[in-house]
UniProtKB/TrEMBL annotation:
Segments forming a coiled coil: none
Superkingdom to which the source organism belongs: Bacteria
The protein's name in its UniProt record: Basic amino acid/polyamine antiporter, APA family
Transmembrane segments: 35-57, 63-83, 95-112, 159-177, 189-208, 220-239, 260-284, 304-327, 356-375, 381-402, 414-432, 438-458
Pfam families assigned: AA_permease_2 (PF13520)
Membrane topology qualifier: Multi-pass membrane protein
InterPro entries the record matches: AA/rel_permease1
Subcellular compartments: Membrane
Native source organism of the sequence: Sporolactobacillus nakayamae
Keywords: Membrane, Transmembrane, Transmembrane helix, Transport
Length: 472
């Protein structure tokens, strides 16, 4: 077999499905409601409670509502493609697993390595936001952490480690270790509380909206709206984590499309409503703060509601972090089960089939990143990785329609030659609007990943060993 064919060896769809059903497969414990709550849990959090203020103040002004519409539309096109794949290939690994089937091993590794960056940094971004909100809540009771341990490493500001971020990462790792059935039940309850808090802000805040605050509507021009959409895109990446749960769903062919699309629809409506109310309550120039939603309520002297929102924000950001960490653990599990990372990482407990070592690896990575790396250096890097994954999945769904028209598809992307094209176009447009520095870091991460694949993954690939045995 030539080197080229070995690099692009593919897992058949049947092989991937049998992997998920065999002894190495995960426990099937979720339904459509759990998936929807998982998606809402991932999407409604940092985007509403943290990113809204930053994007409005620095990029879009009151036109942030358009930024959320644009990034939401880009996600909707990609979500349709994910829904078809997830219903057809119910296995862990999300875009990594799909690309292994469509494009081959080296491409799957590149995408998997990209997703490791996405989830790892997303965990860190969210943990940092959680820490900021929790410390704000502590200050309400007259408690203050020493400056040195209050935020990520920045000697100029006198901060060296974000202790609260490491605490929440540890606690959620323990929840994940209890097993998927128990941890998703906890997530369902917390997400319902979070939705209630968001609705409370919208209802109360609507009485304090001043239309004059929406003028000028586009203070940074349309370019600002586009840059805002590229940054706000971070708020929508949760449905990607939902697709990583397909191996643990009882009826994936039916429930995966419902979970992905319904969670995205709910979240788009809530994001747009919150951004309209938020920029109507407070001049956009005042919103560059760590807790813009609570700040807006304090701005109109609704401190009692601000207290509820701060508590809701903490719960909301907790569920985002939980789902990001969950997605990361399943990604590590899928890649190591294929032998591209050490196979010990994919080891499951006998009773609950929980990937313990994947969870511990995720805990270590999220702890280091969230404790030491400043928030503003993370968000764009998460976005570029996610956008790249969306583009690959959108192309892959078309390729598989052409190559495997025989496969039963419980959900089909409508307008197959239009919708994926629009997904690629919109996601690519958002990618090119990210900074040059972000692109450089992204390419460096890719280069590191290729070195690891050459030195380890290529030689230890389970599929590679199977192919060699078949050729002997």
């Amino acid at each position: 077999m030539s080197l080229f064919r070995r690099l692009f060896r593919k897992k058949s769809m049947e092989y991937t499905i049998n992997q998920a059903r065999g002894e190495s497969g995960l426990q099937k414990a979720m339904g459509a409601f759990d998936l929807t709550m998982l998606g809402v849990g991932a999407v409604i959090g940092t985007g509403i409670f943290v990113m809204t203020g930053i994007v409005a103040a620095n990029n879009a002004g009151p036109a942030i509502m358009l930024s959320f519409v644009l990034s939401g539309i880009a996600c909707a096109f990609a979500a349709l493609c994910y829904a078809e794949f997830a219903s057809m290939i119910p296995a862990s690994g999300s875009a990594y697993t799909y690309s292994y089937t469509v494009f081959g091993e080296v491409f799957a590794w590149i995408l998997g390595w990209d997703l490791i960056l996405e989830y790892g940094l997303a965990c860190s971004v969210v943990a940092s936001g959680w820490s900021a909100y929790f410390q704000e809540l502590m200050r309400g009771f007259g408690l203050n952490l020493p400056t040195a341990i209050s935020a990520a490493f920045n000697p100029g500001n006198g901060t060296y480690v974000d202790v609260m971020a490491t605490v929440i990462v540890l606690l959620l790792s323990v929840v994940l270790l209890t097993g998927v059935k128990q941890s998703t039940r906890i997530n369902d309850i917390v997400v319902l509380i979070k939705i209630g808090v968001v609705l409370l802000f919208i209802v109360v805040g609507a009485f304090y909206v001043k239309p004059s605050n929406w003028t000028p509507f586009m203070p940074f021009g349309f370019n600002g709206v586009i840059k805002g959409a590229a940054t706000a895109f971070l708020a929508y990446i949760g449905f990607d984590a939902v697709s990583s749960a397909s191996e643990e769903v009882r009826r994936p062919q039916r429930d995966m499309p419902i979970g992905i699309l319904s969670s995205l629809g709910v979240c788009m409506v809530l994001y747009i409503a919150v951004s309209v109310v938020l920029t109507g309550m407070v001049p956009y120039t005042e919103l560059n703060v760590g807790d813009p939603v609570a700040f807006a309520l304090r701005f109109v002297h609704q401190n009692w509601v601000a207290g509820f929102v701060s508590l809701g924000a903490i719960l909301g950001i907790t569920t985002v972090l939980f789902v990001m960490m969950y997605g990361q653990t399943r990604l590590f599990f899928a890649i190591s089960r294929d032998g591209l990372l050490p196979k010990s990482i994919a080891k499951l407990t006998k009773k609950s089939k929980t990937p313990v070592f994947s969870i511990l690896l995720t805990w270590g990575m999220a702890t280091v990143f969230s404790a030491l790396i400043p928030l503003d250096e993370l968000a764009e890097l998460v976005n570029i990785g996610t956008l790249f994954a969306f583009i690959v999945v959108s192309i892959g769904v078309v390729v598989l329609r052409v190559k495997r028209p025989d496969v039963k598809r419980n959900f089909k992307v409508p307008f197959i030659y239009v919708t994926p094209f629009l997904a690629v176009l919109s996601c690519g447009f958002l990618m090119i609007n990210l900074s040059g520095q972000t692109w450089i870091r992204f390419l460096i991460w890719f280069a590191i990943g290729l070195v690891i694949y050459v030195l380890f993954g290529f030689r230890h690939s389970v599929l590679g060993k199977l192919k060699r045995e078949q050729n002997q």
